[in-house]
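Need residues for this backbone.
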């Protein structure tokens, strides 16, 4: 049983105890680049981050027989950092999502997200525009953490002929899904965070833009 000064055992002895109340963790979220300042009393911090999603290629009017693949999802990295490994300040870089290609142009790749020099994740690759269904972009790569996950590759443009062409869906990150592939419309943007943009196609006399990738994020869970 427990007494007011400790734990009482069956033989009547009492083991005194020191009770330390742990503070609830706090969370800082970065959706844009900035600076992390280490709080006083911090014991450790769990850092989770994802790179930007890749943008899908676009197409030009009357191209007809091609569709673009979806952009790749951003990579992911996670690490529980001891207080000694965290500087007084750390530069936080949040990778932007890649832009979708306009007309017959490729989409751009997503940017790299990083927490100082300790861990990072590259963005997903953008996709090209071509006269045939283009391949989806490769996923980004996480590094530096004890748990690193590659983003999913985007799906290739789909369809054997004009009447069945459709853009490929964007790849997922660990924190966000990819945009849907569409037909005769602007590609759907990637989901938050790090999802790749969805591809598109065209059989009408209108330029189409591929879906943009979603930006990355950095999440810092602080323990005291």
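Answer:
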């Amino acid at each position: 049983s427990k007494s007011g000064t400790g734990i009482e055992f069956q033989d009547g002895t009492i083991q005194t105890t020191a009770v330390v109340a742990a503070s609830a963790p706090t969370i800082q979220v970065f959706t844009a680049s900035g600076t992390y300042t280490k709080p006083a009393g911090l014991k450790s911090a769990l850092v989770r981050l994802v790179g930007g999603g890749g943008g899908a290629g676009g197409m030009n009017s009357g191209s007809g027989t091609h569709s673009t693949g979806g952009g790749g999802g951003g990579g992911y990295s996670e690490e529980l950092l001891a207080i000694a490994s965290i500087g007084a300040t750390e530069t936080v870089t949040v990778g932007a999502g890649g832009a979708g290609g306009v007309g017959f142009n490729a989409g751009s790749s997503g940017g790299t997200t990083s927490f100082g020099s300790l861990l990072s994740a590259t963005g997903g690759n953008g996709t090209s525009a071509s006269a045939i269904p283009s391949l989806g972009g490769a996923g980004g790569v996480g590094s530096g953490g004890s748990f690193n996950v590659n983003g999913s590759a985007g799906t290739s443009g789909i369809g054997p002929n004009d009447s069945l062409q459709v853009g490929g869906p964007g790849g997922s990150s660990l924190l966000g899904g990819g945009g849907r592939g569409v037909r005769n419309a602007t590609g759907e943007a990637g989901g938050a965070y790090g999802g790749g943009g969805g591809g598109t196609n065209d059989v009408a006399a209108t330029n189409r833009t591929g879906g943009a990738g979603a930006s990355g994020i950095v999440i810092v869970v602080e323990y005291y």
